[in-house]
Amino acid sequence: MSDRLHATVLEVGPRDGLQNEARALSPEDRIAFIARCVEAGARRIEAVSFVNPKRVPQMAGAEEVMAGVPRRAGVSYSGLVLNRRGLDRALDAGVDEVNVVVVASDTFCVRNQGCTTAEMLDAWDAIASAAADAGVPAGMTIAAAFGCPFEGETPPERVAEIARRAHAAGAFEIALADTIGVGVPGQVRDLTRRVRAAAPGTPLRFHFHNTRNTGYANALTAVDEGVTILDASTGGFGGCPFAPAATGNIATEDLLYALHRGGVETGMDMEAVAETGIWLGGLLGAPVPALLGRAGPF
């Protein structure tokens, strides 16, 4: 890795990190969490999810959160949306970018979003068009890109075809998500090359979970492949409420340690992130999966 390489860590803790926790945090606590992320140097933050709070009660109050986040030059807040109603809420709340999740397997898509993959792709086309009209960039996250808890292996050709649809509708970015943490570095290399061929010129982002202890190896493999945007969650919290045994995202502080030691700059303060991870664990009443807060930097 080059000494001059820079990677952006997109902080997903306020959304993916909290959506599967037993204790739901108040909008005030979520705003405080986001403010700490900004102070630690995060410049892209997935702050909220505009989904039905009956389905994901931890994400209730998205508008309140967006009304209270610190607005600073260079800081971009994204909101997850799954339909036109969610998009309208996101636009009204003043998000800087929209993240639309399309699950690569039908069974998981129906459980997660109440529709098939093909139906969600049609919804994506409409959301992307409306977001473009509003001047807000829309990106797609392809969930279960490495494997599905219900259908098994996800065919890489299917991921590439979904990426083509994202590209055709003008996605400003495509993220590949290992939603249940089954991926290995060889898959990262293969999917990176397939998606780049299917969506030429569209920036690629990865979203890894460390369910089977491969998340950090996968992240470093993506960087070796030239990917410069990686999702991570402060403290290593996270998971999908609709996927069995889907444990946490890779931890922001642990990822920062690996990147910084490898000569990759991020502009983030890993010790400040680790302190926030410990603080967040206290709010959630849960053990902190991340390791940097225990061991400290070297």
TrEMBL record:
InterPro entries: Aldolase_TIM, HMGL, PYR_CT. GO terms for biological process: ketone body biosynthetic process; L-leucine catabolic process. Pfam families: HMGL-like. It is an enzyme of class 4 (lyase). Gene3D superfamilies: Aldolase class I. Transmembrane segments: none annotated. Belongs to the HMG-CoA lyase family. This is Hydroxymethylglutaryl-CoA lyase.
